[in-house]
Amino acid sequence: MTGASGQTVAAVDADHPDGHEHPEDDPTVVDLLVPADGVPPLVTDREALQDGATRLAGGTGPVAVDAERASGYRYSARAYLVQLRREGAGTILVDPIACGGDLTVLDEALRGVEWVLHAASQDLACLAEVGMRPDLLFDTELAGRLVGYPRVGLGPLTEHLLGVRLQKGHGAADWSRRPLPAEWLTYAALDVELLEELRDAVAADLERQGKTAWAEQEFEAVRLAPPPPPRVEPWRRTSGLHKVRRPGSLAVVRELWESRDALASSRDIAPGRLLPDAAIVDAALREPAHRDDLVAMPVFRGRAQRRLADRWWSAIERARGLARERWPATA
């Protein structure tokens, strides 16, 4: 693989490239079902947020950080929960929505402190949106790739290096839901429970392999990476688009996709929950002659879709009204 700084990460084929045994071969692996100190109360107001910031500022060493989004449920990629843990401060769970979307007080408390994240590139943008930007970064997932571990997910790495199996099951949940269920908060707290210990274990292997400086360059490249540019013709990522071959039908896909995207953005709903990609492709292929033909099609005949039928039909009519030179090119 090629690292963020442009260097190549060599693939490692050995069974145990780092000298560790795999936990699936080790019957001593234990399940961690609850945090050692219990699940802390959820921070939902400015007073509790300031108290958490004070505790974090008084802690020592790096701070473990994680964020939960509502991918697949919401259009935005905002954080709906932020988890932090630091030696001497314990674990803090913050509801950024209830706190007004501004967590800069936490950012100020952690100036100059190393932040430990797993797959940091997934969370840095949503953390920046609430005013949190690390000065120093250690990414345990990226570090695991540099070491050459066969599996670098948080769960497998924690089992492999620490002999502890984390609770699973809520990573893809709708974290915009309120109130958040107690079992979800337990899962969220466990995500940062051992992250500092995991950081130390991976860092030791980086040092043994002489890759510490390389890893630091990679972490800094991730920390400073600009947001990705907007996709060119993002509608071409519609699942099943390969079935649509005529330029006029591609215009229908584009208009339906753009209409759906605008509505999804305004309602902060994942686009696929408004209208599945398969329905867009189906409408382009079947070429309904009238609005009634559209609402007779699968998916479009549902109650929710019938309420949006005028919107979808207008998109189809716009596509059909385009001059040929404005049709999308075939791939």
TrEMBL record:
Keywords: Hydrolase
Protein EC: 3.1.26.3
Record-level GO BP terms: nucleobase-containing compound metabolic process
Biased composition (Basic and acidic residues): 13-25
UniProt enzyme class: hydrolase
A GO molecular-function descriptor: nucleotide binding
Region of interest (Disordered), residue spans: 1-27
Entry-linked PROSITE patterns: HRDC (PS50967)
Top-level division of the source organism's lineage: Bacteria
Domain HRDC: 246-326
PANTHER family, A to Z: RIBONUCLEASE D
Identification of the protein by name: Ribonuclease D
Organism: uncultured Actinomycetospora sp
Taxonomic lineage of the native organism: Bacteria, Bacillati, Actinomycetota, Actinomycetes, Pseudonocardiales
